[in-house]
Structures
1.
Amino acid sequence: MKAHIITIGDEILIGQTLNTNAAFIGEKLTNSQIQVSASSVVPDDEEIILKEFKRTLDSNDVVIVTGGLGPTHDDVTRKCVVDFFQTELVENEEVLSDIKKFFESRARILTETNRSQALVPKIAVPIRNRRGTAPGYWIEQKGKIFVCMPGVPHEMKNMMETFVIPKLSGMLERKSHISISNLLSTGIPESNLFDRLGNIDELLQGAKMAFLPSQFGVKIRITVECATEEEANNKLVEIEQKIRAKVGRYIYGKNDDTLEGVIAKLLIDRGLKIAVAESCTGGLINNRLTNVSGSSKFLERGIVAYSNAAKVELLHVDEDTIQKYGAVSMEVARQLAEGVKAISGSDIGLSVTGIMGPTGGTETKPVGLVYIGICDATICTAYEYHFGDDRLLNKDRTSQAALEMLRKNLLGISYED
Amino acid sequence: MKAHIITIGDEILIGQTLNTNAAFIGEKLTNSQIQVSASSVVPDDEEIILKEFKRTLDSNDVVIVTGGLGPTHDDVTRKCVVDFFQTELVENEEVLSDIKKFFESRARILTETNRSQALVPKIAVPIRNRRGTAPGYWIEQKGKIFVCMPGVPHEMKNMMETFVIPKLSGMLERKSHISISNLLSTGIPESNLFDRLGNIDELLQGAKMAFLPSQFGVKIRITVECATEEEANNKLVEIEQKIRAKVGRYIYGKNDDTLEGVIAKLLIDRGLKIAVAESCTGGLINNRLTNVSGSSKFLERGIVAYSNAAKVELLHVDEDTIQKYGAVSMEVARQLAEGVKAISGSDIGLSVTGIMGPTGGTETKPVGLVYIGICDATICTAYEYHFGDDRLLNKDRTSQAALEMLRKNLLGISYED
């Protein structure tokens, strides 16, 4: 089954918006054994869109379109679908009912413009939108499948996951099976990871591997193709085990895991509570931990102690220590962790203090210098890190290093390399 | 001048890497008055690449290709260029000298594989690579321009900025000028915005407008094409003024502005300090405010008061009030804002409390219910909001609504719709 992805929208073409939709759809299709033959981006222009529908449907089994389904004048996709399939718009009762409920739940008044979104091409099975108002369309014609979804990422994602992928998967005839796994590492550079894995060909035995680095770590992608699903999965497990044997201490999870999610599970399983005192990350670590549903079970409070006064008043850091070593120091990191543990009555206190840039660096304390402190029932310690000169990347890197220190603490892995 | 952008690479197609190259090139071309007609992504497959070269050159003046120029087996673009233009590879002395210097400067040994990168299609003018080893190609044939660059973003960007854009701009006969502006709105749904703008054609007078919604608000993009730059800019200003006259209170900025950046500027200009007490957003609002460089000028501390104990102990919320109205209530939001203002000695206190989901909702207090409190020198108040059922989107929406309330406070705009 060959698929093409079309993204409609000037904003993508002129570089105002990154095409995250095509990436998401490409990944979901690939994971479902559907080959993505190519993808394209076209402007909000009816003539060009119609040509692209024709060109891509001619040479693919599936065409997936996003964008241009909103309620305003510049949303031309629905009109193009009607023209292309020579069909007409009909009001769909189920969709209208969804739209009405959506507006009721938000205590908003339904306008004519909104109501018009219940008009669906007659030939299409509407795909319900549980996160917005514009429905998607599923059209089957002459053995081809044509899917159309809104461009708003979270609306599209929900439709892909709950409707499109299950339906396509059900239609698939499988001749071989591809299994993919992504191991998530952090705290080790790509080249070191590569060196530690040794002879790659021997390790992979015909499977494929790719390294995808970011400020959060390196994703190791392993792709295995075998005659059956069982065979592919077994081979994948075998390779994974070999990789873990060599660099396992850096691997915090796989696939859709997040570091904060992995930590949340560890904390909840053990009935432990954590509190975080953030200086330079300004709330990012607490934000990440509370992204996990159920975070109130392990996180009771957090402090953004940006100023020295906040460090002293809220977290009982010693004023003389700040005077002597500076707010960005090993000793202050340690006291921040100790303070936040004490005031919250948590089992573990975590802290960060550093210089995120672009300004504020000095000869002895350059931009990118960070101290991370951790304090549990038995030990209170801090470590020094050196990151780069981009403020937002430094915040990400610092939050990741702090959470990774917490993970190592919980699993009894040494902090030292 | 019409251009098409081709990105070559499986990693883009299967969604492991976001296509930032196409976005960058699209933006640079647009800013240089070159129309991007469409863009596409194709796999590392010679047959498909050759077909794509033909298809796109047939209908465009310029085709810009990135990816697949590296030294390893899966980089097939150079071979495709040689085949497509029926030319041959010749060693280019200038390129070879660049490669040698690159390796010398990094104290690395030049291998045969590296040396082979000095082989350039005879028909091409090589584009020097100042950040890596693979040169780009500039090919002119039959009145068409074909440009090929490596996929490594910083290598490609340097070639675009120092060679491709200046050369294309020099060839351009300017018959008209395009100016683009993006107005950033929040707190009003796309459809309401559309309705309030009234007669769009009258408003635009031939210009184009697009709405780009997300959980943070709706971006309004206006595109104007006129004979001269001055004329286009004047018309743009005129349309912007008309839009602002109708929906100006919802517009917090334009183009690359962020809501937190706009607020930071207002706070710094007035010498005001803000403190935020976050319950349901768990640190996100403080994180956004500290993303702005120089945030220590206006933000001194922040509290993530997740538990009732934290609300009472740190922010002096009345325990009886929590008992009577619940932690998610108008009254508690008000007291949180008051408390954080008081303990930090700030000029303004901001607070949020709510139910982000997916669990924790009740009949009377459903998931998505949020109260935002704000307290300044003269007034302490709170408002009720209703968002959706996705935890992370709700955190984004809540942070945006709270920051927007702060902006309105600073500008003396009424909170009521």
2.
Amino acid sequence: MPSVGTEGVKRGYVIPIGGAEEKIQHQDILKRFVEISSGSEARIAIIPTASELEDTGDNYVKLFKELGVAEAVSLNITTRSEAQVDSTIEVLNQATGIFITGGNQLRLSTILGGTPVAQAIRKLNAHGTHVAGTSAGAAIIPEHMIAGGEPGGTPKQGSVSLCPGLGLTNRLIIDQHFRQRDRLGRLMSAVAYNPFLIGLGLDEDTAAFIDPEGVLHVEGSGAITIVDPSDLEYSGIDRASHGDTISLIGMRVHVLTKGCTYIPETGAAAFPA
Amino acid sequence: MPSVGTEGVKRGYVIPIGGAEEKIQHQDILKRFVEISSGSEARIAIIPTASELEDTGDNYVKLFKELGVAEAVSLNITTRSEAQVDSTIEVLNQATGIFITGGNQLRLSTILGGTPVAQAIRKLNAHGTHVAGTSAGAAIIPEHMIAGGEPGGTPKQGSVSLCPGLGLTNRLIIDQHFRQRDRLGRLMSAVAYNPFLIGLGLDEDTAAFIDPEGVLHVEGSGAITIVDPSDLEYSGIDRASHGDTISLIGMRVHVLTKGCTYIPETGAAAFPA
């Protein structure tokens, strides 16, 4: 669930996207993000820090303008000192929506971690600004981020590494390109380390729109796989050596598609009526 | 710094210990823990879950009784279902101090994570119960725990793995047996992943008494090494391949001994007058 906001203040949506969201034909995910960010009055701030391609930010500026927003600005943050510039924070303060692009999530954590930009994103989201991130931009959203790992269907000791993320949600851990890169095993491993976590595996062109009340709505053409360990009876992670498969008893898994909802706080999943 | 407590309520001390605290001669650390937990009126609940030795809990019961506490009880929690037993929660509720023993920290995270016992420890500490942990018991204290890693003095990509801990502190990351097991490199790697973190390397027989106001007091015969990245200018973690040394520019390090203080919130370190 999203981190606790200030009492009486409605927090913004948190929107992790599994990467490769459709940008040309049916742009359901980007359209919905623009819509909740005030449509034709939306001001979108884009953070292209994860990407090492020079035109990533500009491409999203173009895309959001085509979708009819009032303003779209790409922020130039490639070093830790650039993550402290006042004019950059000002653009974030004025935004109705913040969009974090894909690339390498370790660039996001190591360049933004602990800086005024990271603090601003967290605070703004708690006070109503919507934050979306795709691929690496989705991974960085929670308190605990998947830094890297190995593909495969079964959980193995040492197959995933975690590090702190932005902290916009506290119990969720997010993996992306989920079906495309065969990542169920590493998501299960991450959750097995500490079953306080709830795993969210996002297929490409699929997004979790987590609303201010903490209800997750599935959007896009793929599925979201939920790995819920709240009834876990046994995990063998403390006995497994590096590379060993981890035995797990009682893990609950949901596969949710467009229109389904899930409430991380209660574990309740529902399909569209 | 410790997690935010309820307004107007004084939280308890958080006391990570670097392992192998002196138990026979000058028991400075255990004595100080008993003292702040109400001395002769102290009721200590011991969590021996990390250990696979049968007598770990009983040995601490004996030790605390010799130090003159009113009550010392070892809790039998070896499975996730035992971490939900009402009578166990009741012992925790009645305790003035909770002591988490050493062993394997993955047993702590995987057996306690997300259970009523973990929730109770977090809530009780926010409301005034003191919580100490030694070795594995220290590692589990923060929001981000070191699950494992490799020894060595320089930070290397892939030399450390993290997972969620109990969440009694949010920005600290704790390593133990620090000097004895040559762990500076892995602590620096952990902090480099996301420089939001502050690293605490605890030597054996050395403890950080973090008081309700967020001031850390060093106790014991060794040192605490603080790894503070708040002025970090550059980290090469996103460019390093597995096993490569990570370049870091601008990391600040303090080595603090008995009587020194440190305030994680402000970064201020002080030596005894």
